[in-house]
Amino acid sequence: MAHKLSFFQFNIRPWVFWPPFILLILAVFSSVFFPSVFIDTIKGLQQSVLKNFSLGFSWISFAMTVLATAVLFSPLGKYKIGGRNAVPRLSRISWFAIVLCTTIAVGILFWGSAEPLSHFLFPPDFKDFEPTSEAARSFALGALYFHWGFTPYAIYAVPALVFALMYYSGQNQLSLGIMLRPIIGRSPHSFWETGLDMISLFALVTGMAAALGAGILSLSGGFLAFFPETNPTLLTGLTTLVILITFIISSSTGIEKGIKNLSLFNLGFFLLVAILFVFLGEKMKIMDSIFTGFDQYFSNFTDLSLQLTGEGSSWTYDWSTFNFAMWMAWAPMNALFLGKIAVGRTVREFMIVNWFFPALFCLLWMGIFGGTTLDLAMLNPGKYSGLFLNSGPESIIYQVFGDLGYFKVFGQFYILGIFVSYVTAADSSTDALASISMKKLDVDPFHTDNNLKVTWGVLIGFLSWIMITYSGVDGVRILSVIGGLPALFFLLLVSISLVMIFVAPKRYLKA
Predict the structure, then answer these.
(1) Residue 305 in 3-state DSSP?
(2) Beta-bridge mates of residue 12
């Protein structure tokens, strides 16, 4: 039976919880009382990260994709997480729904139309084609697939697999440091493990704030499309508040009820909307977009992955580095959650459910919605360009619904989907935040302290609301890049750990 832990009794890991918590509180107050200084400072930090570490984000992401592919087809794939007698706690469909819905958050809903339109209107300077051309359309789909396919899901799957293997091999300590045990050895109370947990916790909080910012912008864009006279600042505040209240209610029910049920609902929503969109849209054009996306993805994969022609480009900074930094910011903490729900599954099952199928789902989704957006934009590029620049990327998908003639149907569905998607992702991520920042010995890993989950959720809500109020979507980008920097170095070491396990599994894993 789980112990009752109370935040108010300070039953926490103080050196893990307090430094990032205090730093983020200071950031919130600084942005309220000194907004221009605060924004200018973190924008300077962002530019420094982009200039000095962009290649690192790309190369390590590429290496993790290669490693994920190798593990999927290797003899290690037969190993069962937790040993041969381990029993799964979730059905396959529930497991996949949780993985999918807690990893994509609101990403595919927000960026599925906005990102390809941006590439179409403002193509990179290292590619020799004109804006709004057929070549720009094709490249936009390929770049969209690159940013939302197998590479980002490898960023999640590699650390999640390492955590699952180490945690269920007798090192059942809810610390990210156990992922580096193959490199450093066993040292359960060491200084460096506490430091890793503290830094990763900070990275996830900033990444979550970025994702919530995208969700708030998407929801606000939807409500403004229905009620254009609404005050935008008031609307974003109310949207944040409603999300937080719903999340708090959900968080009290745990993984096997709240997160599972929300994820199953969300998976059903995604499938229903995609099928309706294909059925009501132009099927042949959608199929052409999907095939074009795959073709351009594989054609540009090496170039975009290694920045062969795009090194130093503002496009690379704004899109590839931004996307991979955002995924990396989430990856260490999400690894804890995704790893602990994988008990009883083989490594091959894990890679299929955590890497291959979610990536394939995202690619099909992006082909459907991104391709339709580009087809409509080619008919009237001026209208879509003006909307993108004047009303923001959050307005694009609702214009697409309107142009198709099904605004009310899809608009209402989309608002509901965005809302549930973020609540689902926040529930799982704050579960990880609470797990790692509290003292938790000999307790069921599926149970965490609700007080800590709520504390982190409220702080993240304030931070994201402030960022989008003062910086809009630029605030989302800033948080993502800054949060991803410490995770970059950690994931490099985690990848080395997986290589060591890959080479000598019997040395590290439970039989």
Answers:
(1) helix
(2) 438
* Mean pLDDT rounded to a whole number for the chain: 83
At a CB cut-off of 8 Å and minimum separation 6, what does 120 contact?
A: 131, 132, 136, 137, 140, 374, 377, 378, 381
Closest by Cα among 96, 116, 28, 130 to 458:
28
- Banded model confidence at residue 457, pLDDT cuts 50, 70, 90: confident
Nearest to 24 by CA among 282, 261, 224, 206: 206
- Tell me, what amino acid is at 139? F
Q: What is the greatest pairwise CA distance in the chain?
A: 64
Residue 123: helix, strand or coil by DSSP? coil
Whose tokens are 């804890």? That residue is: 336
Query: What pairs with residue 145 in β-bridges?
Result: none
- Give dist(CA 507, CA 166) in Å, integer: 11
The token pair that represents 130 in the structure block: 């004109």
CA distance 7 to 361: 39
Nearest to 66 by CA among 147, 157, 163, 141: 157
pLDDT in tens, 326-335: 788 878 878 8
Separation in Å, CA 201 to CA 5, 45, 185: 19, 19, 22
Residue 376: how many CA atoms within 13 Å on its side-chain side? 25
pLDDT given at position 472? 52
Q: Which two tokens stand for residue 41?
A: 């400072």
Residue identified by tokens 């420094």 is 48
Using CB atoms within 10 Å of the CB of residue 435, give its burial: 0 to 12 exposed, 13 to 18 middle, 19+ buried: buried
Question: Are 293 and 145 in contact, with CB atoms under 8 Å apart?
Answer: yes
Give me the amino acid identity at 124.
P
Neighbouring C-alpha atoms within 13 Å toward the C-beta of 341? 28
What's the pTM?
0.87
User: Closest by alpha carbon to 305, among 145, 108, 81?
Assistant: 145
> CA-to-CA distance for 252 and 440, rounded, in angstroms?
18
Length of the chain as a residue count: 511
pLDDT tens for 304-362 read 999 999 998 999 988 999 889 878 887 887 888 899 899 999 999 999 999 999 999 99
